[in-house]
Design goal:
Helix content: 55-70%
Distance between the termini: 44 Å
Mean pLDDT: 89
Largest sheet: 2 strands, antiparallel
Low-confidence stretches: none
Shape: elongated
Radius of gyration: 22 Å
Structural class: mainly alpha
Length: about 250
């Protein structure tokens, strides 16, 4: 079992109210017990040992949810029962957001799955995109918020350039234009200058990721960014990749 699968099980149990134990909203052992039940649905004998074997993975999965602000260490309220093994309780943000997590939100909570999804665009958008997208995730996982957002902008830039090169057929020409004054806008016009308004507006909106995040690092000022900014930047990048991939043939025509 992988960490992402353990995270998914814990989120599922939290949503169903079945992750509780003692004074905790999230008692990680419940996840290990659920995984053991799924592995041995008709044979209870090995479940206890499987639960013990899987417990370190679910402790780590619970900590990952803690790092992402969904839960916090400790009991729900003063006076609730605590145990040596420990557990977690939902944060205010976790209570608010848990039921509304969409597919992208769940993916962002599972760093391995997100990396695999973005890596799936490697052939389409190139090695530069792949490197920057994975480094953005690594920065997110180490809580380097500015670095994460900056690499998201760089990955989005790689998507835009890959699209322009595919449309023009000349990497040298596109890079030459891009290095000029207002080069980004010129490359954007090369791609969607003759496109219909909805297509032009959508790609223009996605391209703002570059100026919003990549350019942020160039000004030398302190940036008050947080996990929310990093997650939103990665969400925007994923949506850009999905949309450009879906509209690829129309965009390069």
């Amino acid at each position: 079992m992988e960490l992402d699968e353990a995270i998914a099980i814990l989120i599922e149990l939290l949503r169903r109210g079945q992750a509780q134990g003692y004074g905790y909203d999230l008692y990680p052992r419940r996840g290990a017990e659920e995984a053991a039940l799924r592995q041995h649905p008709h044979n209870p004998t090995p479940r206890e040992q499987t639960t013990r074997d899987l417990s370190p993975l679910f402790f780590e999965a619970a900590w990952e949810l803690c790092r992402r602000g969904i839960v916090r260490p400790g009991i729900k309220r003063a006076g609730d029962q605590a145990v040596e093994e420990g557990g977690y309780s939902l944060t205010i943000a976790g209570l608010r957001d848990l039921d509304s997590l969409d597919a992208t939100g769940l993916l962002l909570a599972q760093p391995g799955s997100l990396a695999a999804t973005l890596a799936g665009y490697r052939n389409r958008y190139g090695e530069g995109f792949h490197q920057r997208a994975l480094e953005a995730i690594k920065c997110r996982n180490t809580e380097a918020w500015l670095a994460c957002c900056t690499m998201v902008g760089a990955a989005a830039e790689s998507v835009l350039l890959a699209l322009a090169i595919a449309k023009s057929g000349s990497e040298e020409e596109v890079l030459g234009v891009y290095r000029q004054a207002r080069g980004r806008q010129k490359v954007l016009n090369l791609i969607v200058g003759q496109a219909n308004a909805p297509t032009r507006n959508t790609l223009t909106t996605f391209s703002a990721i570059i100026s919003m995040w990549r350019d942020e690092a160039a000004h030398g000022r302190a940036s008050p960014l947080s996990t929310a900014n990093a997650d939103e930047a990665l969400r925007q990048l994923l949506h850009m990749c999905q949309w450009v991939d879906r509209e690829w043939e129309q965009l390069i025509a």
